[in-house]
Hints:
It is a single chain. By secondary structure, the protein is mainly beta. It has no helices and 29 strands. The relative contact order is 0.11.
Amino acid sequence: MWGSTLAVLVVSTSLASEVSITSTTFNSDQTWYGANTYVLSGQVFFEAGATLTIQKGTTIKAARTGSDGKDTVLVFKQGARIEAHGTATEPITFTSLAPVNSTQRRGLWGGVVICGHAPIAAGGTNMVEGLTGVSYGGTNATDYSGTLRYVRIWHGGADIGGGIGGEGSGNEINGLTLAGVGSSTIVEYVEVAFNLDDGFEIFGGTVNLKYCSSIFNGDDAYDIDEGYQGKMQFIFAIVDKDGNHAAEMDSKTNGNPNAQPRSYPQLYGATFFKAVHNTSGDGLMELREGTGGRLSRNLSSYLLSQLKRFTS
């Protein structure tokens, strides 16, 4: 059954179709086909029980906002799933609808948000900032929210609280938000690039990341919070002078540094490069209150000279 806010327009050509999806709620399974281009505008939700399957080679373009003025974001609520199975030669790409003549452009749309039922710090559930009625967290450490494999997410990070052009309201969308996502979920070969806020942000949960890249994003490459206890293996980051940390790790404590579960990321085989920050001189990594962790066989380099982004 289609959601009551559904608005879908299909424009056919001799080779493929352009499918427009505007401020939509899906309550049933959908498939996005590699032969088509999908154009998102506004907030697009998948409700519990609905699965989005994205074929290899599919391109999804996002407008800055929908007709209601809300920034474009793709959200999978608790119990919804995404099955995005790209390949090395035919990746799935999320990018901006706006012409992007330079890879330096950030914040042109929101990003992708996945919510699960895995445990978060201090127990219970929490709400995704900037979105209404989107909860995450629970008691199922092995919760399954789907698969992302060979997926690229570019040019996101819009402030859905209204602060256009920079971090204003504090409700900037990360390239990929994993909120209370469980360990059965697969996140491999995912790249987030040129996002205005964090590349990957992980709020609690137990999801594992492997072969992921976070490059030239405006805040942290990987931001870990709220009792995250997963593994991150063979991840990569380039942080230029506009970014902050390659990794920021902390845990929501509500004033109690012993709040459980404590964040305990296990980081193996990571490669991080970072330039000196424009103003603050942020460190390559920052480990904050309430976090533990295990770090092994990682390569990190703090570059005194400026890292420059490639431009097309």
